Amino acid sequence: MEQQSIEELAVVNAARKGFYEFLASMYKLELTDEQIEALAKRQLPVDDEHVGAGYATIKEYLRHRDAGTRQELAVDYAHVFLCAGMYEQMTAPPYESVYTSEEHLLMQDARDSVLACYLDEELGLPADNTTPEDHLSFELQFMAKLVEREQAALEAGDEARCAELQAKQRAFFDEHLANWVPRLCADVRAHAQTAFYRGIADVTEGFLELEDQMIGQIDRAA
Fold first, then answer.
1. From CA 92, how far away is CA 100, in angstroms rounded?
2. DSSP tag of 84
3. Residue-level pLDDT at 3
4. How many Å apart are CA 157 and CA 172, to the nearest integer?
């Protein structure tokens, strides 16, 4: 691969890795005051075709933030993602197994499959982890790590490893993100009580559309 192409791909991969990590942090836990303030000050591309509308929604919500914003978002996070206060109705639990198993249960085939993917890259979770491995935040973090390792292989001139990591990204994206996250986003929009999390759902879905195209372009360029 030519040096110019390597440099261009480095910029693309840095942006992809950063976006995966950003989304992972949005779904992992309730946001802290520090995260809220950092996000409010972040330059967000509100005119972007895919994610701009979602970012605009987030920015408008955070423009009105006050001392109660963290608590309001924490309550909404619990309601949407932890199904707090819901006894018979599912809101939007961020676990692949819930969306892909016939009984809509945790710890099903999807969990075993993503864990195998993590271990294939020697990326097991901490021993004290109690969250099912197919939580969306883990899946997004795994994609970020694959992108990071692809870039390292590219810079090292290891074309075989680079191609392997690109193939793993394509497979994981298709089998463990595109197959269920759009449905999760629809459920978030249906159940979120704050515009913030509806905006996060829009950004997530827009990014997946972009990423689907980007992975295809990278595959063809390899």
1. 13
2. T
3. 63
4. 24
**CA pair distance 221, 116, nearest whole angstrom:** 28
- For residue range 42-61, list pLDDT tens digits in order: 887 777 777 999 999 999 99
Rg (CA), the chain: 18
Q: Which residues contact 34 (CB under 8 A, 6 or more apart)?
A: none
Q: Would you give the distance in Å from CA 86 to the centre of its chain?
A: 25
Tokens of 193: 């009580």
3-state secondary structure of 113: helix
For the chain, the straight-line distance linking the first and the last C-alpha, in angstroms and rounded, comes to: 8
Query: What is the C-alpha to C-alpha distance for residues 8 and 76, in angstroms, rounded to an integer?
Result: 39
Mean pLDDT of the chain, nearest integer: 92
Q: State which amino acid sits at residue 192.
A: A
Which residues contact residue 170 at a Cβ distance below 8 angstroms, ignoring those fewer than 6 apart?
A: 215, 219
Cα 205 from Cα 26, distance rounded (Å): 14
